[in-house]
Amino acid sequence: MDRASALAAALAARGGPRLPGVEWPVSIDSTSNRLKELARGGAPEWTVVLADVQTAGRGREGRTWVSPPGGLYLSVLLRPRFEKVGLLPLAAGVAVAEATGDLGVRTELKWPNDVLASGRKLAGILSEAASGPAGVEWVALGVGVNLSFDAARLPPEMQDGVTSLAEEGVADVSVDAVAAAVLARLAVCCDALRSSPSAVVSAWRSHAAAWWGSLVDVRAGEAPLRGRLLEVDDEGALVLELESGTRRRLFSGEVTRVRRAAR
Ligand code: BTN
């Protein structure tokens, strides 16, 4: 059986969605770049692109996603027909946290959707959307999960903050098993977004790192904002109380904790 068929079979065994198309080259610049090309050409929902290595993997906020062998690099196309499309990035975080939980790793979510294990980054999600006159036409969700790669091969500045399933005690898990777990959980979260979006936000909160009340910096655009992290609201926005006392709702950005909440 080839790898794409093994993935489709693993997904069917979990009751997941049927995949209309799977591309799985050994190496690619970015699975999300390729998926976006397919999306613009009219590819159907749940089209998937995977690769063993990415030469120009992209992260959130314009960062590079270093993508050596030993990681899952997957992008999946969604054509959402529900109202709360803005919650998809959070839903994807829930799906990946639950999928890695299924594999036996305890994870926490850092807003919007960084998946942490032992306080270090295990997985990340890049959500890119295209809109037309009728609203969002498609969303390319890119998921990177560190499976087994050697952190010592990463750039020195990344080595401290990164972990992998192997480092968390889950060795010998196949890429297609992790991909199937992520896609199956994602399908459940997409159904929930349609029927009960508030349940997705509740699920997100239940997986969240307990940074409530902490002083954080949020980099969203140029100037970082510093404030107390109050909550993630029902629209998925991060609510900060700035040092001036003003409240700010943020819809994207990178959060760093400066100081824990006073007890
Ligand atoms: C982040 O910054 O945390 C998001 C990282 C997303 C990486 C994945 S790997 C598969 C897909 N292809 C990319 O180029 N990026 C995403």
- The geometry reads as globular
* Cα distance spanning the termini: 56 Å
How many strand elements?
14
Biggest sheet character? 7 strands, mixed
Architecture of the largest domain, according to CATH? 2-Layer Sandwich
- Write out the strand line-up for the largest beta sheet, numbering strands in chain order: 1-3-5-9-8-7-6
- Tell me the series of helices and strands, N- to C-terminal: HEEHEEEHEEEEHHHEEEEE
In words, what does this structure look like?
The chain is an alpha+beta fold. The protein has 2 domains: 3-207, 2-Layer Sandwich (BirA Bifunctional Protein, domain 2); 215-260, Roll (SH3 type barrels), CATH 2.30.30.100. It has helices at residues 3-13, 31-40, 88-102, 156-159, 175-195, 197-207; strands spanning 22-23, 27-28, 48-51, 53-54, 71-78, 108-110, 114-117, 120-132, 135-146, 215-219, 224-232, 238-242, 247-250, 254-259. The termini are far apart. Bound molecules: biotin.
